[in-house]
Amino acid sequence: MSKFAKSLLASQAACHLGVSVKALRLYEQEGLLRPARSESGYRTYSPEDLLVAQDVVVLRRLGLSLVQVGQALAGNALALDAVLAQRELELSAQFAEMHRASARLRELRAELAMGHAPKAGHLADALRSHAAGISFRLPWPWGGEQFTLMELLPLTYLVGPLGSGKTRLALLIAEVLPNAQYVDSLRLTQPGQFERGLQLTAEEVEQVQCGIDWLQQEGATDIPALRLIVGALEAHGGQRPLVIDMIEEGLARSSQEALMGLLRGRLKMRSAPVIAMTRSSSILDPSRVGPNEAILFCPANHSVPFVVPPFPGAAGFEALCSCLATPEVRARLAHAPA
């Protein structure tokens, strides 16, 4: 039985699926969805339509173009097998890590049963994720306090008010993370500069173009700043940690929303974390922060930055939300008279 019990209007369907109404219209234009019309002329999506739409959304988040999605849904063996093979690789990697962690926990329990307490560090090693961690002392404008993150999730948002030191923190994170790439779209001034700066291979340049095509289908505008971010995501096979300075810089709302869809899809194929500095509510919507995402907040009083849970009432949540604004407001403030 379908988990969708009734037909939904476009806005309701978009909310359930986690996409925009514009995306649903685009899927319809490509022949992937065929919603009915109510007596008033509004699009209505049946439970069967919504199941198909779910498949479209999942395939899009895996990086497929609309043409490839259509081929996969039509049962094209090559298109569908490529998707399934990629997902199988991801699950195999996850299974291997879970198997290793499970074996370590069994060892610790066996030691406990024999009356042996875990050695220093072994308990933390067994219980925590083995994602990259960072630790260093905070320079000015802080006072030399120790800053530590035991692990960096695949996507970490870095947020803070003006003057909070978040840019300095971003630079420090890029320095201490092995082989990290610092991405600053403000310094991108010439066409093609991103390709030279990131030293992309021919295959990676092709992947960047596929990503740009996907973004344009989602309503994004192809500009150098957007290509820089997509290029950084593709560079070095996703093996380098990325620290992105003001990820929304120069991007309209539609481009920001599309970029987040692409970024979340790329995270599944990357082995290195992404740290994105932002003050845009279209980049960081706390209600949509997933289990593989975290929010790092720099307080205005220059106390030690800390992770903010993405729900009302959590420590720092209100201060975090006060730093976020819509793309339109951010653009207006960026061009405010001195």
**Uncertain parts:** none
CATH topology of the largest domain: Rossmann fold
Strand content: 5-15%
* Number of E strands: 11
Helix content: 40-55%
- End-to-end distance: 60 Å
According to CATH, what is the class of the largest domain?
Alpha Beta
Provide the gyration radius in Å. 22 Å
What is the string of SSEs from the N terminus onward?
A: EHHEEHHHHEEEHEHHHEHEEEHH
Strand ordering within the main sheet: 7-8-9-6-10-11
Number of discrete domains: 3
Mean pLDDT: 82
Give a verbal description of the structure.
With 338 residues, this protein is of the alpha/beta class. It folds into 3 domains: 8-73, Multidrug-efflux Transporter Regulator, Chain: A, Domain 2 (Orthogonal Bundle), CATH 1.10.1660; 77-127; 134-334, P-loop containing nucleotide triphosphate hydrolases (Rossmann fold, 3-Layer(aba) Sandwich), CATH 3.40.50.300. 46% of the residues lie in helices and 12% in strands. It has helices spanning 10-17, 21-29, 47-61, 66-73, 77-113, 122-127, 166-176, 193-198, 202-217, 224-234, 253-267, 317-323, 327-334; strands spanning 8-9, 36-37, 43-45, 134-137, 146-149, 155-159, 181-184, 242-245, 274-277, 293-297, 306-307. The strands form 3 sheets. It has a 6-stranded mixed sheet, with helices on both faces. Strands 1-3-2 form a 3-stranded antiparallel sheet. Strands 4-5 form a two-stranded antiparallel ribbon. Helix 3 (47-61) crosses helix 4 and helix 9 (202-217) packs across helix 10. The radius of gyration is 22 Å and the shape is globular. The chain starts with 7 loop residues before the first strand and ends with a helix.
